[in-house]
Design brief:
Blueprint: E1 5-11, H1 14-28, E2 33-39, H2 45-53, E3 60-61, H3 71-89, E4 93-97, H4 101-112, E5 117-120, H5 135-145, E6 148-151, H6 154-162, E7 170-172, H7 176-184, H8 191-195, H9 197-202, E8 208-213, H10 222-237, E9 242-247, H11 252-262, E10 268-271, H12 276-285, E11 288-291, H13 295-302, E12 307-309, H14 318-321, E13 325-327, H15 332-344, H16 346-352, H17 364-375
Parallel strand pairs: 1-2, 1-4, 2-3, 4-5, 5-6, 6-7, 8-9, 8-11, 9-10, 11-12, 12-13
The structure holds uridine-diphosphate-N-acetylglucosamine and uridine-5'-diphosphate.
Length: 376
Amino acid sequence: MEQKKKILLIFGTRPEAIKMAPLVKALQADEHFDALVAVTAQHREMLDQVLDCFAIKPDFDLNMMQPGQTLAQITSRALNGLQQIIAEQRPDLVLVHGDTTTTLAGALAAFYEQVPVGHVEAGLRTGDKYAPYPEEMNRRLTSQLTDFHFAPTETARDNLLREGTAAERIFVTGNTVIDALLQTVDKGCDLAQYLGTETWQRINWEKKLLLLTCHRRENWGQPMQEIFAAVNSLAEEFQESVEIVCPVHKNPLVRQAARQIMGAAPNIHLIEPLDYRPFAQLMSLSSLVVTDSGGMQEEAPALGKPVLVLREVTERPEAVAAGTVRLIGNRQQSVYDGIRLLLTDDTVYSQMAHAANPYGDGKAARYIRDILQERL
Ligand code: UD1
Ligand code: UDP
């Protein structure tokens, strides 16, 4: 047999890990590849939760997370650490994912070592340099460094073509998040046991469940305070009929704001970030998802859950077009109005609550593997 191709998969945060996990598995199970994993650990606990869930043991771990890290700190630490690993390992290809600072640093480090780059989830754009921040720019810059663009949708492909990317370098594969979700959801997770008796009993599961997450940099400060204030007043108004569960991101800025503004409401449950399996379960039990997350805009529609997005623009327009996602911005009044409408208008709710999955058939990792087998 010809020599195995060495692929180095690089990631560092929770969402990248979830979306790269199916690809790690697909490449490691294939005899054509020697697939190695390098994590920057830009996130620590939240990354480790995903590594445990998918039983992935990184070959390299830069363990670089610092409390309150700045963008420049993450970039320089990741760039230095990853360049050394790439220089030593000399892979045939580096694979990065999405739009984090680890993504950009990984692609740049590979370029400095003149190693080809594959970009998974390529081509998403808002057209606004500062939204999402810094992710829009991370994605654009990574595209410039990329040799194989794995676009999740035709829209993403068109974005890349418009910027002059060669058509033969773009492959529409679907999003690996659907692979991860389908491999995870409803696979016998005991949410009650995972949450613990006290939390489980505190939540009245007979009521409507609203799942809330919020962490984005462009929402830090005033917008996040306004979002949480809107949720807090809705919790009071709908105390008899709605329970709100919010797994709080580990970022201290987010935790402080969440606790301060929503900590006293009896029907708002601020809990620790959940492992992916129970989180997927919780999403499937909820009536409504309110979030600024990128990945959840892709997952929740696939589960038939309406999603209200706490942003002014999104780089994921497909589910908006399909009618299951709406943008409600990040100001108190628009967030309040957007959520209230879905809690009170059954017609609007049922128009949004249908399964829509513009993001793939759950085989994206296999398509990427096959393309790499053919092209490398
Ligand atoms: C990062 C990504 C963002 C992605 C998000 C997913 C960048 C610039 N940002 O944002 O694109 O959407 O992850 O969640 O790449 N922390 C912990 N433990 C953890 C994780 C974070 O304590 O497991 C705390 C640390 O104090 C850390 C801070 O959160 O300094 C911020 O982490 P960072 O990765 O810089 O930013 P995120 O907002 O998580
Ligand atoms: N998620 C999780 N546990 C949680 C919250 C989210 O496993 O407590 C998953 C979620 O299903 C999605 C991903 O984490 O796949 C989203 O991560 P995050 O919101 O941190 O990043 P983003 O999607 O905004 O890049």
